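pls design
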């Protein structure tokens, strides 16, 4: 889970800071780096005196590609605000914005001693428990989406409307910037995503009805910590992209393993889109169906129109995912990526964008068919109206 440090930090300086600012942590420290964390380097701190464990999250070193990414300050603020809610999050101890300590801003939080599951199929978990773990993940999301963000002091976390409009604009702009990143060895720019402008236009013109709640921004099984022996969520991690926004974005992120494949190369599987069992095998696995997940969400208080918005949400999530993976490719090109699998994930950006473009074209075709049928239907109704008027006229004679 945590191993050798790939991106070194100044441990003596960190220990001096902790000794003054965080009485719960007693140096000296043993420091290891987690393998997960595509964006912000994440470290396991263990007090060699007490054996207590903590987690440090920091910004990546060097010049950052985007001002909107890597916001560890934002993560800290949200975790602190959620500490007394029904949404389980790790306790945070300190936020340090002084880059002189270890080179970048960072915060320290509680280490949650539970199950970290990266595969949404949950291999090795008993079928009955697997189902309840998925139910707990869905119900935890409902708890988040039904929180009163104003009472939590999070009104300034984002704007109260226009979430997808801003998302489309932001991710399009980020993608354009990322495309210019130049590999330090080849000196070649990584290049733009295919059909970026066409997809941007489609998403802008076909948005679902606007809604606002706290959204996590990357709510997936691998950002959830489950209890060691019980099928329930004990913590939600990685709040860097949390904001006020449309709850559809989180729903799609969570149920993406049950949606048709868009990630990477078509016909291949990955950790983002593992092959699902089907028929009796699915029932025996304990995995829920997509409809069951949506049913749990709406029954718990999630918004009722989520079903009809899923296809658009899936397409936009794929677009957003492609931009995020392009960002990983850009950081890899600059050798700033923190994850050992950054090169692999980054390379998935371009085939993913192609897949999303195919989905968008299908949706465009369906939209045209619907519009065409409405025109025909309108013409029929007009004709019927004229005929009925004529008949009524005849009846009055």
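designed seq:
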């Amino acid at each position: 889970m945590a191993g050798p440090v790939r991106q070194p930090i100044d441990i003596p300086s960190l220990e001096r800071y902790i000794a003054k600012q965080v009485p719960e942590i007693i140096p000296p420290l043993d420091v290891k780096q987690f393998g997960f964390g595509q964006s912000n380097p994440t470290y396991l701190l263990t007090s060699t005196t007490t054996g207590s464990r903590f987690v440090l999250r920091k910004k990546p070193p060097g010049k950052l590609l985007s001002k909107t990414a890597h916001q560890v300050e934002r993560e800290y603020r949200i975790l602190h605000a959620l500490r007394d809610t029904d949404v389980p999050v790790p306790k945070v101890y300190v936020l340090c914005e002084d880059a002189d300590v270890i080179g970048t801003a960072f915060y320290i939080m509680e280490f949650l001693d539970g199950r970290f599951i990266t595969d949404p199929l949950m291999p090795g978990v008993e079928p009955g428990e697997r189902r309840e773990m998925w139910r707990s993940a869905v119900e935890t999301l409902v708890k988040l989406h039904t929180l009163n963000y104003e009472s939590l002091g999070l009104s300034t976390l984002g704007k109260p409307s226009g979430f997808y409009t801003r998302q489309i604009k932001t991710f399009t702009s980020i993608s354009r910037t990322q495309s210019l990143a130049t590999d330090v060895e080849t000196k070649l720019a990584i290049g733009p995503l295919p059909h970026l402008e066409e997809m941007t236009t489609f998403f802008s013109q076909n948005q679902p009805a606007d809604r606002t709640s706290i959204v996590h921004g990357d709510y997936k099984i691998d950002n959830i910590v489950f209890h060691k022996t019980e099928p329930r969520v004990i913590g939600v991690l990685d709040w860097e992209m949390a904001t006020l926004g449309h709850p559809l974005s989180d729903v799609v992120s969570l149920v993406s393993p049950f949606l048709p494949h868009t990630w990477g190369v078509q016909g291949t599987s990955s950790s983002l889109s593992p092959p699902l069992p089907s028929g009796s095998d699915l029932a025996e696995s304990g995995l829920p169906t997509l409809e069951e997940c949506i049913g749990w969400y709406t029954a718990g208080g999630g918004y009722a129109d989520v079903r009809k918005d899923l296809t658009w949400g899936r397409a936009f999530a794929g677009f957003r995912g492609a931009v995020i993976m392009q960002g990983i490719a850009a950081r890899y090109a600059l050798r700033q990526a923190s994850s050992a699998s950054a090169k692999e994930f980054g390379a998935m950006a371009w085939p993913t964008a192609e897949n999303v473009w195919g989905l968008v074209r299908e949706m465009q075709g369906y939209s045209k068919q619907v519009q065409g049928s409405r025109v025909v239907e309108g013409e029929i109704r007009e004709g019927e109206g004229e005929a009925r008027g004529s008949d009524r006229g005849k009846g009055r004679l």
